[in-house]
Amino acid sequence: MKKTVAxxxxxxxxxxxxxxxxxxxSVIKPLLLTKKxxxxxxxxxxxxxWVSDAKLLDIKxxxxxxxxxxxxxxxxxxxxxxxxFSIGKKRIDIAFPAMHGAYGEDGSLMGLLRxxxxxxxxxDMDASxxxxxxxxxxxxxxxxxxxxxxxxxxxxxxxTENVRAVVAKVEKSLTYPLFVKPAHLGSSIxxxxxxxxxELTNALEVAAYYDEKIIVEEAVPNLIxxxxxxxGNSILTPALVEQPLTIGDNLFDFDKKxxxxxxxxxxxxxxxxxxxxxxxxxxxxxxYEKSLSVAESVYKVIxxxxxxxxxxxxxxxxxxxxxxxxxxxxxxxxAHNWRASGISGIELVEKLIGYAEERFEEKNKxxxxxxxxxxxxx
Length: 378
Prior knowledge:
four-stranded mixed β-sheet; 378 residues; four-stranded antiparallel β-sheet; Dna Ligase, domain 1; D-amino Acid Aminotransferase, Chain A, domain 1; 35% helix
């Protein structure tokens, strides 16, 4: 008997459109090809409405006004918590979140699914919360002796109320060039590289438009940027160490990732969700192995399970590898890297479902209730 998998995507996030592509191309398509699962697409609109319809399986639905017409005509989706999880009349066996950013990847959806009592793909709520906060992940990494670049962070209100004071503190603590980032966003949205006071001021205001917490990082000199996708629970399987390739300012912004083919002219490089990249990265073997070691250490200390991508910054001259950030649900699952590592898209989604079920079974071995006579005294 086929298991029913609910795939969640879209959401109230600036990464809404990227989530649609991840769901359709890297999750739903390979799941259908296995012929082992019934798929229930759960699309969450930019306003937070939940919709489920067979038409959501077709990318053409999201082009033009078709998606707006569909969501307007759709009745509110009924979700039942009855010792399990049902959507409409469909009993859900496994949830597969394909959401990026706020209200999904940040642990919000994971908390809901955990309370519903069903297995779900990816990290649990606590690890997702840590992973989606760039400040918190650096604090956890530092507490576990994992090197990070120098940084400071601020609340949005610090910037909106007195941006000059924030600029002064940044310039006292860090040295240009700097990177200014919303602490909870991915896909390089709202990120700026700055080299002077004016650029810093503008970048802080842009980042504050997107997030309540903003991080400012000191650039790593002699930089090689690499990324390491990892799957697994207690036993980890890393993919290849990958080096994104850019030109110009070396800032991999949203356009370079998704709209311009990576910003690299010519050459027969690997093309994936990050655009053009060297796969595997052509770096000295010592740095390659060190990158794998740091990435696996980060994965473990934040408590990641299922899948995550660890981004690292290398000072080539010093031979130092710094942790940068974690992506708990990589865009398109970083399927291009896993293919190059010998794991097909179909194998990848099946492995991720297996990890979800494994973690669920382990959690169920724990005692979650406690019998007492406490209430009898009232």
